[in-house]
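Preliminary data (for renewal application), magnesium ion complex.
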Amino acid sequence: MLPHLRYDKEVSVKRLAILGSTGSIGRQTLQIAKAFPDRFQVVGLAAGKNVDLLLKQIADFKPLFVYCPDKGRLNSVSPQFLSMEEMASHPEVDMVVIATSGKAGLSPTLAAVKAGKNIALANKESLVMAGEIVTAEAKLNNAHILPVDSEHSAIWQCLRGEKEKPTRLILTASGGPFRDYSAARLSRVTVAQALDHPSWRMGKKVTIDSATLMNKGLEVIEAHWLFNMPFQKIDVVVHPQSFIHSMVEFVDGSIKAHLSCPDMRLSIQYALGYPDRLPNPDLPRLNWDEIDSLTFEQPDLENFPCLSLAIEAGKNGGTCPAVLCAADEAAVNLFLSGRVKFTDIACLVERALDGHQPVAHPTLPEILAADAWASEKVMQLVGAKSCF
Ligand code: MG
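Predicted structure:
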């Protein structure tokens, strides 16, 4: 849907609701909003556990609406308390930034698209778990899904101005910190090593997912839904320098690539400002003196099976991607708490997918049921020590 996207809801100042405002993407979104006060007004803020930071953000941006699960802590503030779904669909909100992590993003994403809001989407689970429902609702209600993830932003930018449908999407992957590790070495990876990503600063879950390549698999599924491309026409190539954020091949064999310093603020700003490119001196420029080479290699599917597991789950469709997401989330949490090894993450996800009875074209309750089943399944597998 994105190649034909027109921003037809132009207003002089875009009124933003930012869901997940205290996370990495949320904080960077606020930096962009602050840099362009004549362009953006923050009217809604929603956060999870970090209420101290949320209170600071409320004092700083003076939104009209706020949300956090611990309502009592917001008693002393003046903005109106709304649920994330109410905020995402409120008439005084022009654009909803979905920066919540995990499946908590799903319901507000649906509320926003059902209300015909344009959304800047950073939450992966919404499209991975419920891509069919979310994209159908967006189409029905003339809501546009603007990607915030650097790879999808790169593809979107490469498609701009093109009339023909692309023949191939090429997602780049940094390969994570363990690109050259042997299987034996991978099994000894510590949490601290896995959290030390070579090129991007991100939240914990996405950093571990980058190290296992699960993140790239989830991005392939998102690209499938965002750009309406069959899985066979989406490739992944490892590009460790992380300057090329993705590429698009066209019918004549031409390939367009999008390059920039790896900095999420650029793709956030592009989504917020679309259709305009905004001048921002805070964003870093590529320094060609410091770039020796741009290299590419095929992903190592044997040592990083999460990539294949994700693509397979995407191709199988139905409730499989929801099981993939939930099993991965549970397995990553177990790894972060020191209960399983790095290499057990893929094993647990595979076992959960193998044991699942998929439902085709699932409803939202069926998706959530598959999600709950998969989390439970992973805990059972760990309890029974089936992977180890
Ligand atoms: Mg990404």
